[in-house]
């Protein structure tokens, strides 16, 4: 499996990916799922991939070496290197997905394998604002907005609550990076098929290049602090909430549960009784 | 959708269920998913259900009114009311699932509907220890152990991390009830198809009856405290963790990320370069 998250803030972009791939629990490997495409001063793009590895690798290869059908207004081919907007670059990525679909989907279907792939793709082209896209296996895509400033691919559920609680467009970049790492840590705790090392990129709006790229392994001191600190403090918070107190008396005490009063509604005490 | 959780502790059992059912987002209803079967002093059993509502309702009806094929050693029919063990009662539940399968599965298949149902079923029969089972749509089942003291059915992922962090067989009953409510709150925050009211049962080991049954709606003061307190304190914990600091200098400072040094590994800067 995979867990990747891309976040678009006013201050910039944050991308985080794990690197575990599995074809069954007895066939686990490390494949990194993030690539940065960059011409400093002109464009920075980050691609995260999830799904069938043979498909995502083919898409990434084709994106670089084959001429796809996307054309600009003059009929000239668009590539990710000459696209004048992130939207056009996302179209190129979508075309690459469709190219692989045309080549592989029928054979995969014969083998009983779904054409399953998805990408988070974001960045900035000179002269345009930053943009962040989620590209589906049909090559279509959606764009992040202020209301939905992040996209996840792969095993998204375990790590979603903290993103929802923290992220807004005004979140500072480093805080969003921390949030992505907490989200990843929760995911890795609950799903063995998501694993280290992690790739993290933090991109500052308007810079058109990034030096904040780091590969995080189990020895990374910051990640170790997040891993132990979050678990321990979460437990402290849990302990700090009062336990419920059961009480039959009608009371306004905020921690008392009125016991038994609803019991008859859902309790069956004889074989003849029925309650659906 | 549904979210239900059953927990088996040394001190007793905790059961919690939501009550939202949906057949598409434009067809949401309230159906309660918990039933308590009880002969005080002899047996207390709690049944939680998830999956296709027509199947789970049929199973619950059949469990009460039809004679199933399960027999004891003397050839007499076993019901949940005369079963001498929770294991036998779980067999009766499994037989009820198979009965509905035989009746409905083929027609459902013609309509393109999976035979999808699952149950958490636990309790205590006089003379035996408490037991907790997870019953699958094939009527087979597994039992909770000290290493895995809880079962979830329905939308389980959002609410799993807190259960994993808190629950052990030694967890006190009221703390486990709080944990189940936090787990439910996280699930409801992230999945609109899980909703109030909730049914909560806390059963004390050996009592063979329970008075701690409560239906929790949006006005319940304890649930409101959990809902606002958990979210707010989680945010405080998040804020209390330091943000990462980026630094090129090799340093042992625990919060510094060594930036850029791994950049070349995953960065492509010319169209000719390749990196899968």
TrEMBL record, chains A, B:
Keywords: Hydrolase, Protease, Proteasome. The keyword Glycoprotein does not apply. It holds the Pfam family Proteasome. GO terms for biological process: proteolysis involved in protein catabolic process. GO terms for molecular function: peptidase activity. One of its GO terms (cellular component) is proteasome core complex. The keyword Nucleotide-binding does not apply. This is Proteasome-type protease.
